[in-house]
What we know:
This protein is mainly α. It has two domains: 2-44, no CATH class; 55-103. It is built from five helices and two strands; from the N terminus they run αααααββ. Strand 1 and strand 2 form a beta hairpin.
Amino acid sequence: MIATLFGLLKTIHALKNGQITPGALGAEMFEKLKNTYTTFVQDVLGLREEAQVAVDSLLDILLGLYRQAKANKQYDQVDAIRAQLKGLGVAVQDAPSGAEWRYE
């Protein structure tokens, strides 16, 4: 089954790289290729494309919570947010202009 999937991928990559044109396969074969690949990936392997998340926007929201906790002098929460973000590879720094984040 996996070998079949890799065979399909070779054809898909050849299509993507222009080595084969969709017209060369024919509309029926192209649809069959697409449906077979989708069946393998989604139905057999259970893989689904995940929705893209706006990471920068999420970090800005968390930084807002950080700022709010700091303004309310909830330093245990400030430290917890900073530590959890650090565990994810994000550093929070207090700057004269306010709290900022960056990837470590």
